[in-house]
Amino acid sequence: MAPLLSVNNLVVEFPTRRGILRAIDNVSFEIARGETLGVVGESGAGKSLTGRAVIGLLQRPGRIASGEVWLDGTRIDQMPAREMRKIRGRRIGMIFQDPLTSLNPLYTVRRQLVETILTHTNATVREAEQKSVRLLDAVGIPAAETRLDSFPHQFSGGMRQRVVIALALSADPDLIIADEPTTALDVSVQAQVLDVLKTLGEERGTAVLLITHDMGVIAEATDRVMVMYAGRRIEMGPSADVIHAPKHPYTVGLMGAIPNPDAEADRLTQIPGAMPSLKAIPPGCAFHPRCERRFTPCDCTVPAPQPEGGSSVACHLYGPAEAAA
Ligand code: SF4
Asked: Where are the beta strands (DSSP E) in the chain?
């Protein structure tokens, strides 16, 4: 079956007075209906920019310099802004880190849900109200009917994020883009919100692009994962494979930085160094200054993604020897 979302060779650039900065460098991925794809990497890896490019919300002067974004057989990266606004409300729902940025503090949840449903569907007011109750119920808000008349500040952080998920679902979108949806929440409610997101795919067939810096979130809620570094896709594969048998040295480092309750506390490792700034992306493999396994071609040749088991890895340690020449 054709993927719901296809991103092909996406390049995002920021023109500056000193030259053009390349923030996303040739990134390709697909998401099937009902599938959750995680995008993971440290801050500055290009995860959020990738999500913003897909939904046409790049902040100027950022621009898609080349590549294509297809949603269900329609190319959307060149759509006029007005058309794209419709796509964002109707076909793609969005969830950001801070639920308060998505909710109007002056309106009840009923008003916000009903208005969104009326804007994007042909429902009557009565149908929109009934659907609002069903949506709050579906995201696990108890006593949905009475909570409809609450204002956002009357919900806890976790419940507010569930309201945002309900809002994002109100037009029955095909795709949800969730950018760090649980980062602002207490650890105890993170798992519940991730659970709601996970069941979306299973029960509604919604595809989810889940952006996070947290491998724990990837393990909890995704089917496949794309690891990003300095704007490039460096590893992609089924989440279980990437988590239990990471291949790229950066992914290995990310996994080593996750606390493991079964291991001694001093086993926790950090990746030395920091993500390079856009102005100073190292030549060759952008990770080479931080990589303990670097060898001759690493500082001059950009490694291309190579199939490796069920995954794809962009590292000179993998693939044909010629790639390293
Ligand atoms: Fe390390 Fe070289 Fe692989 Fe980059 S290409 S991750 S520097 S071994």
From this structure: 5-16, 19-31, 36-40, 63-71, 74-75, 92-95, 175-179, 207-212, 224-229, 232-238, 306-308, 311-313
